[in-house]
């Protein structure tokens, strides 16, 4: 399976763990679910792995993702730190989330990211 649309499926963090084994997935849409930063830990990985890593401590689970839609999920700055291993990611939808500029810093190393949609999202972090 390369594409999965689970928009408005009432998914929470617990259900997402079952999706992390879909290592061939290229497009994942999770908009309008009850997903939080805790969910994104299942995407955590090391940025220098280009294939599924069975032997490393931190696994990049969905390494083939090119598109991820988190529109209207309860995602914040800390959650984005778990996306650093998604080195093939080209499009990321973060509309209506709780992301600030410090969260965007976490994904600044995703060099293939061409399309970032943060509408109704970006707040200015307090210094």
Could you explain the architecture of this structure?
The protein is mostly loops. It has one domain: Leucine-rich repeat, LRR (right-handed beta-alpha superhelix). Helix content is 14%, strand content 12%. A five-stranded parallel sheet has the order 1-2-3-4-5, with no helix packed on it. The longest helix has 6 residues. It is globular and about 30 Å long. About 11% of the residues have low confidence.
Distance between the termini: 44 Å
N to C succession of SSEs: EHEHEHEHE
Mean pLDDT: 80
Name the overall outline: globular
Number of structural units classed as domains:
1
CATH class: Alpha Beta
Low-confidence stretches: 45-58
CATH superfamily: Ribonuclease Inhibitor
CATH topology: Leucine-rich repeat, LRR (right-handed beta-alpha superhelix)
Number of DSSP-assigned strands: 5
List its traits:
14% helix, little secondary structure, 127 residues, 4 helices
Blueprint of the fold:
Elements: E1 3-5, H1 13-16, E2 27-29, H2 37-40, E3 67-69, H3 77-80, E4 91-93, H4 101-106, E5 115-117
Write a concise synopsis of the structure shown.
The protein has helices at 13-16, 37-40, 77-80, 101-106, and strands spanning 3-5, 27-29, 67-69, 91-93, 115-117. With 127 residues, the chain is low in regular secondary structure. Pfam families: LRR_6.
């Amino acid at each position: 399976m390369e594409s999965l649309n689970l928009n408005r499926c009432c998914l929470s963090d617990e259900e997402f763990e079952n999706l992390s084994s879909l290592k061939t997935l290229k497009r994942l849409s999770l908009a309008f679910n009850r997903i939080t930063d805790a969910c994104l830990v299942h995407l955590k990985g090391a940025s220098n792995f280009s294939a599924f890593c069975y032997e490393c401590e931190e696994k990049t689970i969905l390494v083939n993702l090119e598109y991820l839609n988190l529109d209207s999920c309860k995602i914040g700055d800390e959650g984005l730190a778990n996306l650093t291993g998604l080195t093939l990611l080209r499009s990321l939808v973060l509309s209506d989330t709780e992301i600030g500029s410090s969260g965007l810093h976490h994904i600044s190393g995703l060099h293939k990211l061409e399309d970032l949609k943060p509408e109704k999202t970006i707040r200015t972090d307090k210094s």
